[in-house]
Amino acid sequence: MTRLPPPSAVKLGLVIDLDTCVGCHACVVACKGWNTQSDLGTPLSDQNPYGADPSGTFLNRVHSYEVTPPAGPTQQVHFPKSCLHCEDAPCVTVCPTGASYKRGSDGIVLVNEDACIGCGLCAWACPYGAREMDPSAGVMKKCTLCVDRIYNDALPEVDRTPACVRTCPAGARHFGDLGDPDSAISQLVTDRGGFDLMPEQGTKPVNKYLPPRPRDRDTAGDIDILAPLLAPVAADGKGLVAWLDRTLSKLPGGHG
Amino acid sequence: MHPAPSVITFTTLSGLGFGLLFWLGIGLPDPTGWVATAFFGLAFLLSVGGLTASLFHLGHPERAHLALTQWRTSWLSREGLAAIATLLIGGIFALTRVLGIPAAPLGWLVSLGCLGTVFTTAMIYTQMKTVPRWRHWTTPALFLALSLAGGALLANQRHPALVLLALCAVLQLVAWTGGDRRFAASHTTLATATGLGGIGRVRAFLPPHTGSNYLLQEFVYVVGRRHVLQLRVIGLILAFGLPLPLIAAGLSHITALVAVLAHVAGVLCLRWLFFAQAEHVVGLYYGKR
After folding, report:
1. Distance to chain A for B73, nearest Cα, Å
2. Which of residues 6-65 of B touch A (CB under 8 A)?
3. Per the record, which residues fall in region Disordered (chain A) (predicted)?
């Protein structure tokens, strides 16, 4: 049924910390791996993977942006992007077959691949590029919030989170109930000033992003706050390195 | 947006077919016998042919019947139902005309169904908040006007064709003028897309993948935009500029064929631009439009 259910009390989703993300793409690989071996749907296919023009279906991708503040140095921000499990999901209501749906119990947006005709309209309706048509399967693929992990009693409890969250080496991805204002993840959003992507599109995303923290400003004019710690070790004129420095400098052509 | 040939063929041909069926429905012209067979045959050939073409871009055409189930929320579903209902009633009406049985009210219902079908087709595009160029009243207005104008041309309705073709040209110019500014007016930018605009100026630095992907192929189509002016002029001349003086001078069989062919080629060009020129907001994430 492509009519949206009334807003659920439980809103499962992700919080992505743009301050901590190091842009390693481990979440991308873990997501691709899990959702290719999972029996929830068809595998995420690749086209021409070892050829000149490889491409493939991914449910999570990491962009990198350069942000230049009015004053101070430019920052690079790594930016993972996957389905935001929107409360007013436009991808659900446009679906002509009922394949695209939002769960009334926990707010997860899913695709019933057996009913998907591969018309692509849901991907058109999504402003975030969260849906990709799999050219091999001819059906629409999207983030399932690893619904086959988070409720899976066969897995150890520590693994009952989405694959991207479980694998993130920087702790930049958090999973939990954003419908509960007292949950750890909701507290994180409140404390850090979490925000929505493209709020003007009116999709009311469940997933939130945490802004990068302000950078330390170095007053000595160095390129980095750690620069003083990187000064030459032999500057005090003691030890083996200092002796080597003096001796080599005395040789013809040496730098004094 | 990627200009899929199947969707361009579908919207152009079925628009023309339902346009012709509209005029037949209101009895302009009101043929019987073999002439009715030819007129209705052409209308059904175009509309059904167009609808069949639309199935070719589906990943699973064998499940297409499921697309009729979600009419409560989905414009695509509504379009499917409207098209099938109109063609079914249209078939019965065609039979009454061929046999010469009077059934004018049934014809009016067919005409209403034609308008509904073309309107629901247009609403599939108009509803997309993600494509600001389409999200405007000019989209359904132009779809409807083009359908009726092409139908009038095929139905040999001289005065309605003249008025509607001129109206189409004006609507098309209004749609382009406003459409060119609508992406900026939507206030969706890389700053809102990333939420980083508060810190400073945002620029896409590294793409998430080295090759292409579905999103870039489907939503970031730049070829059409490079030759926009030339294509707009060609489209306008073929669709309206050529047929208008021909119709005004009075059509013979030869000039009617030229007018129809020029009009169809022009509408194909304009419809190609409708897709190829449309910018989807997801392109912002890639620093593209």
Report:
1. 5
2. 57-61, 63-64
3. 196-217
B5-286: CATH architecture: Up-down Bundle (1.20)
How far, in Å, CA of B161 to CA of B143, rounded? Answer: 15
Least confident of A112-116, B225-229, B283-287: B225-229
Rounded to a whole number, what is the distance in Å from the CA of A211 to chain B's nearest CA?
7
Which residue of A65, A95, A198 is in closest CB contact with B205?
A: A65
B155 in helix, strand or coil? coil
User: Pick from A235, A227, A188: which is nearest to A208 by CA?
Assistant: A188
- A179-227 pLDDT, tens digit per residue, is 999 999 999 999 999 999 999 999 999 999 999 988 766 556 666 667 7
Kindly report the pTM of this predicted structure. Answer: 0.91
User: Cβ B67–A126 below 8 Å, yes or no?
Assistant: no
What are the extents of the domains in chain B? 5-286
User: Tell me, what's the ipTM?
Assistant: 0.93
Over residues A45-65, the pLDDT tens digits come to: 999 999 999 999 999 999 999
Q: How far apart are CA A20 and CA A77, in angstroms?
A: 9
Q: Which phi and psi angles does A177 have, rounded to 5°?
A: -95, 105
B82 vs A: CB within 8 A: no
Percentage of chain A beyond pLDDT 70 is 92
CB B186 to CB A200 under 8 A?
yes
Bond into B29 cis (ω within 30): yes
